[in-house]
Amino acid sequence: MIELKGVSKTYDNGTVALKDINLTIQKGEFVFIVGASGAGKSTFLKLIIREEVPNAGEITVNGFKLSSMKKKNVPYFRRTMGIVFQDFRLIPKMTVFDNVAFAMRVTGATTRQIRKRVPYVLSQVGLTDKAHCLPKELSGGEQQRVGLARALVNNPDLLVADEPTGNIDPQLSFEIIELLNEINRKGTTILMVTHERELANWFDRRTIEIRDGSIVSDSGRSVSNESQ
Ligand code: ADP
Ligand code: ADP
């Protein structure tokens, strides 16, 4: 589902963010990407969703070869995944229902499909009672669950979450990951970036640690980089 071969990323100012990353993530896996601030986690995610392109190497996600992908095809590629952001990125003037419905509308879904699907997804994340609230009327954890509902509404094969628990308290972080676990059990592949290693440890899932732009361990097994 996700494959990186010899992937390196150096930003225009010369900062080396990732060095020779080799990695395969199978369909149905739940993977935590951990590492300190500045390790290269966000760069890794940006490459996966093709917000950035590598200087070297090959990335394949959901059957799309990202290096040869034309810019005009990026929106089609993005529709194969759901993305959850640390800062939620909800539309302030839209209700919870409309924030989630909007993600369906842009894919050309009909009103009938939206009326059926949005309440179902809101119930999955426990927000049925909040459908008509505005984001500012919700707690941080609730706003993040709206973000999750929006990411799930188009039934993606892959869910990518960038520090989804970064702006909420530990108890709610736990609930968000429980929800992700449930979604994963239904077959969605999940890739979650966090600097909170304890969360990843607690949930006992595949955990890949990035340090100074290299993968240093994969579920506890240290990874040596032959080319270094
Ligand atoms: P993390 O998400 O683990 O905190 P990042 O991927 O954001 O790490 O950053 C990895 C390295 O790349 C850091 O040294 C950071 O300063 C640098 N970096 C990130 N984004 C940019 C950018 N747009 N331009 C230049 N350097 C960047
Ligand atoms: P937290 O403890 O997570 O910060 P809040 O105290 O912000 O949560 O919210 C507690 C509950 O009150 C939540 O269910 C939230 O939806 C509701 N709530 C908070 N602010 C408003 C508001 N301005 N209007 C309506 N409901 C609100």
UniProtKB/TrEMBL annotation:
Source species, domain of life: Bacteria
One GO-annotated biological process of the protein: cell division
Instruction: Enumerate the spans annotated as ABC transporter domain.
Output: 2-227
Name one molecular function that GO assigns to this entry.
ATP binding
Q: Can you cite an annotated GO cellular component? A: plasma membrane
Cited PROSITE patterns: ABC_TRANSPORTER_1 (PS00211), ABC_TRANSPORTER_2 (PS50893)
User: Entry's InterPro entries?
Assistant: AAA+_ATPase, ABC_transporter-like_ATP-bd, ABC_transporter-like_CS, ABC_transpr_LolD-like, Cell_div_FtsE, P-loop_NTPase
| Cellular localization per UniProt | Cell membrane
Q: What is its main location?
A: membrane
Q: Which UniProt keywords apply?
A: ATP-binding, Cell cycle, Cell division, Cell membrane, Membrane, Nucleotide-binding
Family the entry assigns: Belongs to the ABC transporter superfamily.
NCBIfam families in alphabetical order: FtsE
Q: What is this protein called?
A: Cell division ATP-binding protein FtsE
Gene name in the database record: ftsE
